[in-house]
Amino acid sequence: MSLNVSRLWWNWEYDTDLYPTWDKFVQDLRDYYGVRTLSYINPFLANVSTKSDGYRRNLYLEATEKGYMIQNSTTNGTSIISSGPGLDAGILDLTNPSTRSWFKHVLMEQVWNANISGYMCDFGEYTPVLADTRFANKSVDPFFYHNEYPRDWATLHHSLRTEIPQVSDAIIFHRSASLGQNRHMNLFWAGDQDTTWGVNDGIKSAVTVLGHMGMSGFAHGHVEIGGYTTTWDSFGIVNRSAELLGRWGELAAVSSAVFRSHEGSVPQVNTQFYTNTSTFDYFAYNARMFSSLATYRRRILDTESKPYGWPLLRMPVVYHPDDVTARHISYQSFFLGPDLYVAPVLDPGATAVQVYLPGRNETYTHVWSARTYPGGQSITVGAPYGKPAVFIVGNRKHSDLDPFLKFVHEENSTTIRV
């Protein structure tokens, strides 16, 4: 089977064939449809000299001539990383104030010139740690700066808010992180999971990442619905099924600060939300479930995340540190704020989940059956498509769960098919 793996040219200018009037297109979407547009950026510059359809400006050559990229003392030139066949690139040297100034102007002239509302601020973790890595700041140790680079990458974009008015209202989300970076960003995502059910880099790992990031002070997180990386094993391509996409959408609806999908690294072999009417209906259903929790999420973000840095998704150990079983839970269940407890379906073919309810003095009401269970035990509840195991913790204290419970009431008889 021949696969067409298509990648961006990291030169940060729009494609004039696909978008001949990019800035007008972005503005028209906002003016006529109320749709706001996100873009994409990363700290790499690709050499576009061989780009078959040409380019307007070769940022790689500009940065090379001015010494704006991380250097390799052995080759006495730009340190090159490869991200696939034919895509070699250099990395911006953020220890150089001139680099930061130059690239900020690139962003203003080539990215923020359209009325976008933010972007995926990708990568940040590729800084080489080799002994022959050289920075403009000669005192920088490559081994240690590797962990500091994501913070400087986020700081650069956050600083644009004083120069570009729309940045103050933008979503700029990251996947790489370092100590202190959370004060310079407003959203992160759990990274590029494989399009699988796996523990180490599939749907289960997305929950683990959100939980650990929350414990590390990154309060605003989300999963990338469906995963990203298509992999191969001895049997062939491991692609995304309709079931995995649907269950991942459920997870996003009850775990994340935003609801965002991705076509994946090889779109043509993966099920998409637009593949057929069933996948479209399942995705729309999950989007409505996410929307029904908007008021509740907003209260948590405003009253707990903003002033205290508490995450939206909370590992069970946060509320029950003395519960030995709760301490060993990683991806199986979590709290969404203080008032909801969730056990997502993360295995193929499963129509029920076993879930541990922490805290012997706590009660949990299963929203789909209205049955209340005491804590300190493991139970099994039904979880057909569209009905992840969600529980109200204790007695409901706020009315902001009303829209969600209305959704549950209206959709309880809905049958989802994949």
How would you describe the overall organization of this protein?
The chain is of the alpha+beta class. Among the domains are: 178 residues, Glycosidases (TIM Barrel); 96 residues, Sandwich (Immunoglobulin-like), CATH 2.60.40.1180. The protein has ten helices and 23 strands. A six-stranded antiparallel beta sheet has the order 16-17-18-23-20-21. A five-stranded parallel beta sheet has the order 1-7-9-10-11, covered by helices on one side. Strands 2-6-5 form a three-stranded antiparallel beta sheet, covered by helices on one side. Helix 6 packs parallel to helix 7 and helix 7 runs antiparallel to helix 10. The longest helix is centred in the middle third of the chain and has 17 residues. The mean pLDDT is 94.
CA gyration radius, whole angstroms: 23 Å
Estimate the mean pLDDT confidence.
94
Spatial strand order of the main sheet: 16-17-18-23-20-21
Uncertain runs? none
CATH homologous group name of the domain at 8-185: Glycosidases
Count of strand segments: 23
> How many strands, which pairing sense, and closed or not: the largest β-sheet?
6 strands, antiparallel
Overall structural class, as computed from helix and strand content, comes to alpha+beta
Task: Give the key terms.
alpha+beta, six-stranded antiparallel β-sheet, single chain, TIM Barrel, Immunoglobulin-like, 418 residues, 18% strand, 10 helices, 23 strands, five-stranded parallel β-sheet
Secondary-structure map with pairings?
Blueprint: H1 22-33, E1 39-41, E2 44-46, H2 59-66, E3 71-72, E4 77-78, E5 81-82, E6 88-91, H3 97-110, E7 118-121, E8 133-134, H4 142-158, E9 171-174, E10 187-189, H5 203-215, E11 221-222, E12 224-225, E13 231-233, E14 236-238, H6 242-253, E15 260-261, H7 277-292, H8 294-308, E16 313-314, H9 324-327, E17 334-336, E18 340-343, E19 352-357, E20 363-366, E21 372-374, E22 377-382, E23 389-393, H10 402-411
Parallel strand pairs: 1-7, 7-9, 9-10, 10-11, 12-15
Antiparallel strand pairs: 2-6, 3-4, 3-8, 5-6, 13-14, 16-17, 17-18, 18-23, 19-22, 20-21, 20-23
Helix pairs in contact: 6-7, 7-10
